[in-house]
Amino acid sequence: VDLRSEKNSLMMSVATLMTAKLREYCLINDFIEIQGPRIISAASEGGANVFEVKYFDKKAYLAQSPQFHKQMGIAAGLEKVFNVGPVFRAEKSFTTRHLTEYTSFDVEIGYIDSYEDVCEFEEGMLRYMLEAVKEKYGEKIKKVFGVEIKLPKDSFPRITVKEAKEKLAKAGIKSKDEGDFSPEEERKISEIVEEETGSEFLFMIDYPHKQRAFYHMKNPDNPELALGFDLFWKGLEVTTGSQREHRLENIIENAKERGITEESLKDYFDYFRYGCPPHGGFAIGTERLLMKMLGCNSV
């Protein structure tokens, strides 16, 4: 009965077109779609916040991300891959933005020169999707949800974590910590950047490497920082991305810094043993994307 309401029925239609256009943009750019397994033998993000399951007489985990398998695709010569499907996070979060199961749209691109290549691809993909949604449902979304779909005019602004913290301090917003942002901080910095640039989107860059996933590449000019980004839209982080570490010795060292043993990720490290091209990618939480597009107050 609930889905018969105009609002919820429209939401389902928009969600369908949104995902279709994200996928279509990848396909017209010669990506290959893969499906990473959802039951895996090693935790995708290094062991935190995973659901443990019994797999016959062994221990297994519900996948937090298809990250490892996207990288396997790159190492195997597929060059550009994407994956859309459910992922699982065992986070005891009672918020408007977290889910224990959500649908992630993941992209991985080989032979990049910089994480900027990844940012530029995501910009193009989101612009392509928003144009299609606005054309087909823009007027109806405005009528039913009271939200106008704004199409990005220019490149999304880049702002460093350090710059963001300085702007927030100037605005009187207390910092959660030096390398992360509270929901209040995300909302405020998005407001500030939109006032300064007119953009609803912003790429947050130069996060401390120690607070990012071990497979993010370190900045060679400042190893304390990661070569990656988060994408904020209308005050909410909707994407995390980075250039990945593709050199075997470096990625093993990164893992050890997190207390992850080489033996526990032996199969993953084998992807890089015979050479892997420079690559990077990102993951979009599709429910968050839809929430922000339609101006809903909860994921």
Description:
The two termini are 20 Å apart. The protein has helices at residues 6-28, 67-75, 115-145, 161-170, 183-197, 248-257, 266-270, 286-294; strands at residues 32-33, 39-40, 52-55, 58-62, 80-88, 101-110, 158-160, 201-205, 218-219, 222-226, 228-233, 236-243, 279-285. The protein has 299 residues and is an alpha+beta fold. The model has no long low-confidence stretch (mean pLDDT 95). Helix 1 (6-28) runs antiparallel to helix 3 (115-145). The chain is globular. It has an eight-stranded mixed β-sheet, with helices on both faces. The protein has eight helices and 13 strands.
Topology overview:
Layout: H1 6-28, E1 32-33, E2 39-40, E3 52-55, E4 58-62, H2 67-75, E5 80-88, E6 101-110, H3 115-145, E7 158-160, H4 161-170, H5 183-197, E8 201-205, E9 218-219, E10 222-226, E11 228-233, E12 236-243, H6 248-257, H7 266-270, E13 279-285, H8 286-294
Parallel strand pairs: 1-5, 7-8
Antiparallel strand pairs: 2-4, 3-4, 5-6, 6-13, 8-11, 9-10, 11-12, 12-13
Helix pairs in contact: 1-3
Question: What's the gist of this structure?
Answer:
The chain is α+β, with helices and mostly antiparallel strands.
Using only CA atoms, what is the Rg? 19 Å
Q: State the helical fraction.
A: 25-40%
- Can you give the mean pLDDT? 95
Largest sheet: 8 strands, mixed
Per DSSP, the total helix count is 8
Segments where pLDDT lies below 50 for 5+ residues? none
Shape: globular
Which strands sit side by side, in order, in the main sheet? 1-5-6-13-12-11-8-7
| Count of DSSP strands | 13
